[in-house]
Structure to design on (475 residues):
């Protein structure tokens, strides 16, 4: 954490991530000291204070991404999975390519994903990594944390994996075999001991996150996992109700709804969040709200896979904490938080508009133009994410909070003519250049550049890795 004092001067607009009238702050200046926002208002520079000139820039809380699969950053637009829905895509792309990852390709994929996120103004990523198999030759968890540390990002490792397969184990290649339950639990304890830091300023957290709750482990083991997580003081995460298949599978296997299944196995509560929650019955929404179980909304992946659009309005009204996640780049070729926020803004409106009926047929509204404001989307993508991840001191731009701040430079013609510059980074789509991104008060991106990073070399490495992995997958 920086011990220097830094002054962000003359911001054109400030979004805070807070609800209601507090969603914007007049500023125009923000002082950061010892990694924390010390003052906001009209401030005079102190002697020797570092200045960031934010004229013509807008300030946002740095984004909190609550669901990613960083390893998929080398699986973008994979042709066999490009035009498929979830289940067929899973077999065609992420599962078919599992065994093609080695230490160097995994590391490269993680690095690419983190850099895409950083360049969109994201400080925190919850990576739901499910690339684990018995006798794996590299330590994926350690690579995630070390790559995050090298870039100064906040990493929440959601330790995925499965202790049961959907097909007979002897037919599976090694990389698709389930882990032994005792080994999974022992590894969770190891990860928490080694990496988990519960402090508010923490850059490392660990979460219990079997890949998909209905299929990854037998019910009795899920209960044990929840118990261990709570005894270790860590959170719980998984995929749930991404498509109608979840409703069908829960009915066929357990004669329950997916959310009922979670309730039966102690997998609901304000320490639990699920990715997707696209297909829910009204009674399931009510239970999620009563238990304050959260959602990582992934509109671009849900769109790309044709899964649907989660009903954030109903979920939030019921009391569900809402956050945004980009999901893996194998089902989202725009895996950055500005794109995700832009999609969330449009799609909640489109979703509501789709329900509009003509008045002669009982319709009562014209469309969904009032469904989600830019301020709502910013709040979901920042404060909402921090709440869900239990990061009490990040996610908003206000005095006393950690300085996780994105300063966007709206100097592209895309933003010329805007009546309200503050909405630019979400409303206009594309990527606004960063004047600066700071995490815990430390400047990580400066004038849109990450110092020391050779993007050309990385592009070449990525192209060669894709070729190698295609050859390995074809074998
Ligand atoms: Zn996912």
């Amino acid at each position: 954490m920086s011990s220097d004092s830094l002054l962000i001067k003359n911001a054109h607009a400030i979004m805070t991530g807070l609800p209601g009238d507090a969603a914007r702050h007049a500023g125009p200046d923000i002082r950061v000291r010892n990694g924390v926002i010390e003052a906001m208002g009209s401030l005079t520079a102190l002697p020797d204070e570092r200045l960031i000139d934010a004229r013509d820039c807008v300030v946002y809380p740095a984004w909190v991404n609550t669901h990613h699969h960083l390893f998929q950053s080398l699986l973008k637009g994979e042709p066999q999975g490009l035009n498929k829905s979830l289940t067929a895509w899973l077999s065609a792309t992420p599962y078919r390519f599992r065994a093609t990852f080695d230490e160097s390709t995994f590391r490269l994929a993680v690095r690419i994903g983190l850099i895409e996120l950083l360049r969109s103004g994201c400080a925190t990523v919850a990576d739901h990594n499910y690339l684990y198999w018995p006798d794996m030759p590299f330590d994926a968890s350690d690579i995630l944390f070390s790559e995050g540390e090298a870039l100064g990002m906040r990493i929440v490792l959601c330790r995925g994996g499965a202790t049961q397969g959907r097909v007979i184990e002897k037919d599976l290649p090694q990389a698709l075999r389930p882990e032994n339950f005792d080994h999974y639990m022992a590894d969770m304890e190891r990860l928490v001991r080694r990496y988990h830091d519960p402090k508010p300023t923490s850059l490392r957290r660990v979460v219990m996150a079997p890949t998909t709750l209905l299929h990854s482990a037998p019910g009795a083991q899920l209960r044990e996992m929840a118990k261990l997580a709570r005894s270790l003081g860590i959170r719980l995460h998984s995929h749930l109700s991404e498509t109608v298949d979840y409703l069908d599978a829960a009915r066929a296997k357990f004669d329950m709804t997916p959310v009922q299944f979670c309730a039966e196995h102690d997998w609901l509560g304000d320490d639990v969040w699920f990715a997707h929650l696209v297909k829910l019955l009204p009674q399931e929404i009510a239970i999620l709200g009563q238990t304050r179980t959260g959602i990582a909304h992934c509109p671009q992946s849900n769109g790309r896979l044709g899964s649907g659009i989660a009903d954030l309005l109903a979920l939030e009204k019921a009391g569900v904490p809402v956050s945004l996640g980009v999901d893996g780049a194998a089902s989202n070729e725009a895996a950055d938080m500005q794109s995700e926020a832009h999609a969330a803004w449009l799609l909640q409106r489109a979703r509501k508009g789709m329900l509009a009926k003509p008045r002669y047929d009982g319709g009562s509204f014209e469309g969904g133009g009032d469904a989600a404001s830019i301020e709502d989307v910013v709040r979901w993508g920042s404060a909402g994410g921090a709440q869900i991840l239990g990061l009490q001191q990040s996610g908003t731009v206000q005095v006393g909070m950690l300085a996780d701040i994105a300063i966007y430079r709206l100097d592209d013609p895309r933003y010329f003519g805007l009546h309200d510059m503050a909405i630019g980074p979400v409303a206009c789509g594309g990527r606004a250049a960063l004047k600066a991104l700071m995490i815990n008060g430390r400047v990580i991106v400066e004038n849109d550049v990450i110092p020391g990073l050779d993007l050309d070399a990385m592009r070449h490495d990525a192209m060669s890795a894709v070729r190698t992995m295609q050859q390995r997958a074809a074998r």
Remarks:
- The chain has two domains: 5-60+414-444, 63-384.
- The radius of gyration is 22 Å.
